[in-house]
Design brief:
Length: 297
């Protein structure tokens, strides 16, 4: 009896070693792949999972509802960005949904250059792929690589240029003034930002902009290890535009539960119940727009 059991066990192990695509060998593919790839590569090279759904006619995970939207990469539609040169953009959140800001991905090609935002509109850019060169009115230039970002107060002269290929995510909104408070331009990178306290929560939090009153929004970078989740099931007046930079998980929006992965964008209207749990095998990191420091009235 015992020898048959041992035989079956050995046979089982042997089978596992032979299987290339089966359950036994599945994990290695993902982990070796992501180790050799640059940061945030999935945002620009998304894959639907499972693979057999990738080309299914008419299939999309995208959802658009009155108080939230999930916009997945197969739904992104690029067109030339007005006032920009050699750049195409995909607007993913806009006032048509009820937001007071726009969020878009911009793909800069060879010899590309940004246009300026409309009058009184502030802008934040975050580099996802490649590198861009920033130049201000005094002709001072700086190169921004992946994970770097820049904030331009309203009516601040600047240009973003690229001589190869780069992808950035852009947030713009009409600035809400507060007497005696003036926002300054900011250029920095995520890795230079300190971890902040998150009482009652387990995720890691960084903020890309100063928390002072001059700024009417902030961008949070939130990291979750697989299995970690938000403690608070938030319902609040602030709006959000989210880009999942790394990882996979489940996002709850209202009464819907969505499997999400790197490259997905979410719009959250004020007061939509929201909650996230990180799953999968790697860290989840997302970037989150949030309006702050202003009365909703
Ligand atoms: C766009 O890029 C092409 C190819 O690099 C270049 O020849 C062209 O001058 C650029 N367009 C403008 C308006 O600069
Ligand atoms: C970048 O941010 C860090 C942390 O907030 C700050 O100490 C540093 O001075 C900033 N760098 C620049 C160039 O502003």
């Amino acid at each position: 009896m015992r020898s048959i059991f041992v035989f079956l066990l050995i046979l089982g192990l042997f089978k596992c070693a032979l299987t290339e695509e089966g359950f036994c060998s599945a994990p290695s593919v993902l982990s070796t792949e992501s180790k050799s790839k640059p940061l945030y590569w999935k945002v620009d090279n998304p894959t639907l999972s499972p693979v057999h759904l990738q080309d299914l006619p008419g299939f999309t995970r995208s959802v658009y509802k009155s108080d939230h939207a999930l916009i997945t990469p197969e739904s992104h539609v690029y067109s030339p960005l007005p006032d920009w040169i050699n750049t195409s953009g995909a607007y993913l959140v806009s006032p048509h949904m009820g937001s007071h800001f726009v969020m878009y991905l911009a793909k800069l090609k060879e010899n590309s250059r940004s246009g300026l935002p409309p009058h009184d509109v502030e802008r934040l850019i975050f580099v996802l792929q490649g590198a861009v060169t920033l130049t201000n009115a005094a002709s001072v230039s700086q190169v921004l690589k992946v994970d770097s970002y820049a904030y331009f107060p309203p009516n601040f002269e600047h240009s973003i240029e690229c001589d190869a290929l780069a992808t950035i995510v852009v947030f713009e909104r009409r600035y809400t003034q507060l007497p005696n408070h003036v926002p300054e331009p900011v250029v920095n990178s995520t890795d230079k930002q300190p971890l902040l306290e998150t009482p009652g929560e387990i995720f890691e939090l960084r903020k890309l902009l100063p928390t002072s009153l001059a700024y009417d929004f902030n961008i949070h970078i939130m990291d979750f290890q697989p299995g970690e989740f938000l403690n608070v099931k938030e319902v609040h007046y602030n709006q959000h535009g989210l880009l999942l930079l790394e990882g996979q998980g489940i996002y709850r929006l209202g009464d819907s539960w969505y499997p999400v992965q790197a490259g997905d964008v979410i719009w959250m209207a004020p007061f939509v119940p929201q909650w996230y749990a990180a799953l999968g095998k790697t860290r989840s990191r997302y970037l989150l727009y949030k309006d702050v420091n202003r009365s909703p009235l």
